[in-house]
Design a protein that fits this description.
2 strands
Length: 95
């Protein structure tokens, strides 16, 4: 039996899901957005170039970025996975 308790002891089945604002799907893929923090940036406490990796949640069905206030992407993707969409942009190793 699955334990649906999170770290604060709430049964996740009793919490509403965050559905995609564009297509209504409740499933997301996690990808990473990479930012480069220059050693010259005054906000950089280490004064060395650094990569800052930020998790980003994309709708599995239509590719909408969770929390994006701009117009979401075209939903006419027939349920195509974001990983496939991103693979087409970034190049697939399988091809």
């Amino acid at each position: 039996m699955l334990n649906n308790q999170n770290q604060i002891g709430i049964d996740v089945e009793t919490i509403p899901t965050e559905d995609c604002k564009k297509c209504g799907s409740k499933y997301y893929d996690t990808v990473s957005e990479i930012h480069r923090l220059s050693q010259l940036d005054p906000r950089n406490p280490t004064q060395q170039d650094q990569l800052v990796i930020v998790p980003v949640y994309l709708c599995h069905k239509c590719g909408w970025r969770y929390g994006d206030k701009s117009t979401p992407p075209n939903p006419d993707r027939n349920g195509e996975s974001n990983m496939r969409i991103l693979g087409g942009i970034m190049g697939d190793a399988d091809e």
